[in-house]
Amino acid sequence: MLNELGAREGAINMGQGFPDFEGSAVARKAAAEALDTPSLNQYSPIDGLASLRDEVSAFYERRYGARYDAASEVVVTSSGQEALVASLRACFTRTGRAGVVVMEPFYPFLAPAVAAAGGALQPLRLAPPTFALPTAAALDAARDETTGVVVVNSPHNPTGKCATADELAVVADWCVRHDVMVVADDVYEHAVFPGRAHVRIADVPGMRDRTITLSSAGKLFSLTGWRVGWALAAADVARDVSAAHTALTYAAPTPLQHGVAAALAAEDGTFGGVAELFARNYGALAAALAARGLDVCPADGGYFLVADAKRPAMDFARSLADDTGVVCTPLSVFYATPPAEDSYVRFTICKSAAHVDRACAALG
């Protein structure tokens, strides 16, 4: 439905989550130079260029004080999605269990990733409007004897919820008690709104050796078509991620790795001001939607805004597109089994201010 509505003439697509502005100029220039250098267009080492792994390691130490050995604890992949599949396979290898607890609503391509890795989805539903992380009792209810992994996504797609230190402490304690690993999908870590904080579950005491942290250069530098990501983990865990990565894609594109390395080296921590832009867009869109009678859910960062339309979401999305040209996404696509009361919709905020303002004007 989203593709159909978004393809209409004059549609204002607020459903699909990719920037409409140019990504990192530093990355693009360095990649172009690599493309014009014949020796830089062959296979890279399987785990990524040493220069990129060095920059990834330096970035996490600079930003979070987190130390990862560039040679043994960083695996560069062909997208965050590939990092996800490879990391799940690594967890299954280490625990001998392939049940994956995922928190609904969740990124739609998480379910295919779990299936591709050979796992079984174990959904755990978060409650609107805050979408707070689960209690230990809720985690117990989702778990069975096959559970070996929990996926934690913060900031969260689709809700924009940032996990708090207290929430992550509960998840961490539960994982230690049940010998469960964590795949931390942190691809929106750079897009936390001013005044909010990104807390890494890998930094919770006892969790570094049982957490694989994922990120994406495409998200960090607004270059979503580049498909370069990475996984960070303790050396023995990273070896298992690397083994899975080798079987999946062998190596990420070499010229693009050069571009990402240059961008990380030059990055001052602001990522072009996207966190401020997205916070501004959230505020503007939230006001416009509230004026139409929607209840907007709180968010701390990320690419999206979720709101309660107070009527069936699919009907609302169609009528909104018909009446205003603004396209949104029913939240039902983010569940393994859609909720009985399906009134929530998602809008993107990872666009230029002009694009969001156009949508706000159309909303009236």
How much strand content do the residues show? Answer: 15-25%
- Average pLDDT score: 97
Number of DSSP helical runs: 13
Shape: globular
CATH superfamily label of the largest domain: Type I PLP-dependent aspartate aminotransferase-like (Major domain)
Q: What separation lies between the terminal Cα atoms?
A: 24 Å
Structural class, by secondary structure, is alpha/beta
Cofactor: pyridoxal 5'-phosphate
InterPro entries: Aminotransferase_I/II_large, Kynurenine-oxoglutarate_AT, NHTrfase_class1_PyrdxlP-BS, PyrdxlP-dep_Trfase, PyrdxlP-dep_Trfase_major, PyrdxlP-dep_Trfase_small
GO cellular component, one term: mitochondrion
Family: Belongs to the class-I pyridoxal-phosphate-dependent aminotransferase family.
Structural summary, described in words:
With 364 residues, the protein is of the alpha/beta class. It has helices at 2-6, 25-35, 50-64, 80-95, 110-117, 136-142, 165-178, 217-220, 235-248, 254-266, 274-291, 313-324, 353-363; strands at 12-13, 74-77, 99-104, 120-125, 147-153, 181-185, 211-216, 229-232, 295-296, 304-308, 326-327, 329-330, 344-348. A seven-stranded mixed beta sheet has the order 2-8-7-6-5-3-4, sandwiched between helices. The protein has a four-stranded antiparallel beta sheet with strand order 9-10-13-12, with helices on one face. A two-stranded parallel ribbon has the order 1-11. α7 (165-178) links the parallel β5 (147-153) and β6 (181-185). It is globular, with a radius of gyration of 20 Å. The relative contact order is 0.19. GO terms for molecular function: kynurenine-oxoglutarate transaminase activity; pyridoxal phosphate binding. Its cofactor is pyridoxal 5'-phosphate.
